[in-house]
Amino acid sequence: MNAYPLLTVIRDSFYFNNMLNASMQGFAGLQNYASVLQNENFQAALRNTVVWTLLSVAGEYVLGLISALALNQNIRFRAVFRGIVIIPWVVPIVVAGMTWSWMLDPDFGIINYLLVKVGLLEQSYYWLGEMDTALLTVIFVNIWRSFPFFTISLLAGLQSVSRDTLEAAAIDGAGVRRRFFSIVLPQLKTVSVTIVFVHLIWTAINFDFIWVMTEGGPLYATETLPIQIYRYAMQDYNFGQASALASMMLGFMMIVFLINFMNTSRKTKR
C-alpha cells in the first residue's frame, strides 16, 4: 500500500499526461525523459541543486562541529546555550523563510539597515533579487536553520570520546590540534558519515525553503530540480514530465544509497 504512490509516479513517467492537452494521451516510452533532459533550464537546475546541496551540508557540518565542540566544554550556563542553539531547528521552515525574506528586504529589512549603518554597504542591496547572490543567500539561511541538527548529533558523539584518552595524549605531549585530528575526529566518523549522508538526501529534495524565499527566481537563479518538478506538475500540469524528473531523482538517490550501503557493509566485514 505504501509503495502505490511511488509505483504510480514511475508508471506515469512513461505515459503522456498533460491536463492542458487532453489529446496527448497514451504510452510515451522515454519521450518524457527526453523532454526533461532537453529543457533549456534543466542543466541550470541540476547545477543549482548540486551547489545548493553541497554548500549547505558542508556549511552545516562545519558550523555544527564548531558549536558542538564549544558546547562540550565545561562553561557556565552550558545547558542554557544548548537550549538556545536548537531554536533555529525548531522554527518552521515557512516562518524561517518569510522572516529572513523580510529581514533581507532592501527597503525595510534590518540586515541592510545594519550593514549600511556600520559602513559595510553604501546602500541597501537586494540579496534575494540579484542573480549573483540569490542562491548563496538562501544557502546561508538554510545553514543557519539546519546546523543545530549537526550540533546535537555531533555533541552526542563527543560525549562518548574518552576523556582519559585525551588526558593521556595531552600528558604525552599531543597538542590540541593533534588530539582533535587523531582522537576526536576519528571517533566522530560514524555519526558524521550518517548525518552527512542523510542531510545530503534531505537537502537535495528540499522544495519548500527555496520556494518560500525566492520561488526559484530571479530568472531561475535559485531553481533546483524539486522546484522544476513543481513547475511541471502544478504550473504546466504536465504530470508525465513531472513524474519523469521525479523518477530520475529517485533513481539517483537509490544509486547513492546503494553505494553507501555497500561501502558500509564492506567496512563492517573487514
From TrEMBL:
<dbReference type="InterPro" id="IPR035906">
    <property type="entry name" value="MetI-like_sf"/>
</dbReference>
<dbReference type="InterPro" id="IPR000515">
    <property type="entry name" value="MetI-like"/>
</dbReference>
<keyword id="KW-0812">Transmembrane</keyword>
<feature type="transmembrane region" description="Helical">
    <location>
        <begin position="83"/>
        <end position="104"/>
    </location>
</feature>
<feature type="transmembrane region" description="Helical">
    <location>
        <begin position="188"/>
        <end position="212"/>
    </location>
</feature>
<keyword id="KW-1003">Cell membrane</keyword>
<protein>
    <submittedName>
        <fullName>Sugar ABC transporter permease</fullName>
    </submittedName>
</protein>
<keyword id="KW-0472">Membrane</keyword>
<feature type="domain" description="ABC transmembrane type-1">
    <location>
        <begin position="46"/>
        <end position="260"/>
    </location>
</feature>
<feature type="transmembrane region" description="Helical">
    <location>
        <begin position="50"/>
        <end position="71"/>
    </location>
</feature>
<comment type="similarity">
    <text>Belongs to the binding-protein-dependent transport system permease family.</text>
</comment>
<dbReference type="Pfam" id="PF00528">
    <property type="entry name" value="BPD_transp_1"/>
</dbReference>
<dbReference type="GO" id="GO:0005886">
    <property type="term" value="C:plasma membrane"/>
</dbReference>
<keyword id="KW-0813">Transport</keyword>
<dbReference type="GO" id="GO:0055085">
    <property type="term" value="P:transmembrane transport"/>
</dbReference>
<feature type="transmembrane region" description="Helical">
    <location>
        <begin position="242"/>
        <end position="262"/>
    </location>
</feature>
<keyword id="KW-1133">Transmembrane helix</keyword>
